């Protein structure tokens, strides 16, 4: 009787292990590969995912940008027994979360402070030095793929901060939004310059994402009680579907004045008054 019960329990456990991806079919005492074992077993068999996890993808993007900046290929990390190549690809794609020991190895090799990868996954900031490095890159000094990945990381960091902004009615909103808009302009200028000479869709798709993020944020900023003239002007002309040149003609100013106003650069008082009048007319329609 006991033998039959034992056999049933064993069959039940084996069935559960086969159908539940969070259970190691080899049992709790099976060996685990923290890094680059020959069979490249997943770094954390309890956290395998078929779909992309945005939080893991964010951490993976930071790791990818960092290792490429430092010249670490997937093969090199595997050879140094940090993490297997297939596991690294899955992590950077947001489909797999590495074990704690593997994360510690990555942080050591990539010179991240301990716990950085987990903090990025949890929504913490990307290390400033990495964002700064991305912003100073040019497509002439680094391979295009690394350049695009670095700018994507910068954009992702800006988007993360934008998602955490307070309500437009909050006293600190306008200043914080203006700072993010300024960073977006810098990224857009860098990407625009690169797009003139870079082949392939990568930089174009990135530029599209930057412009969409910029437009969404500046329109959001235009709703603040103390919104800047440039923010309100941008929102009004986009709602009216007017180009910069058409807006300039309507206000009786030149196109550069429109560009300066929307970029929060100073403009003559007379031009500001003309633009205020135009914004009022456009928003009353």
UniProtKB/TrEMBL annotation:
One function term, GO molecular function aspect: DNA binding
Domain of life where this protein originates: Bacteria
Family matches, as InterPro entries: Lambda_DNA-bd_dom_sf
Keyword field contains Acyltransferase: no
Region annotation Disordered: where it falls in the sequence: 1-55
Biased composition, class Basic and acidic residues, residue ranges: 38-51
Sorted UniProt keywords: Plasmid
Protein's UniProt name: Transcriptional regulator
Native source species: Mycolicibacterium fluoranthenivorans
């Amino acid at each position: 009787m006991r033998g039959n019960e034992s056999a049933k329990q064993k069959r039940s456990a084996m069935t559960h292990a086969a159908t539940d991806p969070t259970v190691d079919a080899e049992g709790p005492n099976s060996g685990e590969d923290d890094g680059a074992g020959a069979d490249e077993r997943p770094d954390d068999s309890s956290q395998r995912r078929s779909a992309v996890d945005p939080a893991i993808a964010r951490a993976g993007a930071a790791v990818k940008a960092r290792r490429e900046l430092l010249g670490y290929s997937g093969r090199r990390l595997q050879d140094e027994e940090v993490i297997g190549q297939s596991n690294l690809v899955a992590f950077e794609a947001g489909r797999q979360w590495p074990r704690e020991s593997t994360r510690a190895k990555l942080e050591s090799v990539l010179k991240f402070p301990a716990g950085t990868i987990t903090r990025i996954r949890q929504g913490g900031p990307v290390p400033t030095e990495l964002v700064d490095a991305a912003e100073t890159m040019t497509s002439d000094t680094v391979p295009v793929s690394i350049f695009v990945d670095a700018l994507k990381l910068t954009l992702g960091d800006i988007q993360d901060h934008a998602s955490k902004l307070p309500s437009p009615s909050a006293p600190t909103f306008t200043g914080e939004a203006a700072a993010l808009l300024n960073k977006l302009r810098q990224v857009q200028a860098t990407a625009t310059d690169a797009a003139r000479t870079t082949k392939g869709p990568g930089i174009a798709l990135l530029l599209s994402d930057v412009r969409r993020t910029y437009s969404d944020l500046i329109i959001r900023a235009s709703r603040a009680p103390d919104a800047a003239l440039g923010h309100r002007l941008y929102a009004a002309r986009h709602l009216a579907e007017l180009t910069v040149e058409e807006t300039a003609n309507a206000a009786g100013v030149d196109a550069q004045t429109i560009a300066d106003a929307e970029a929060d650069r100073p403009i003559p008082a007379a031009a500001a008054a003309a633009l205020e009048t135009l914004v009022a007319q456009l928003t009353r329609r």
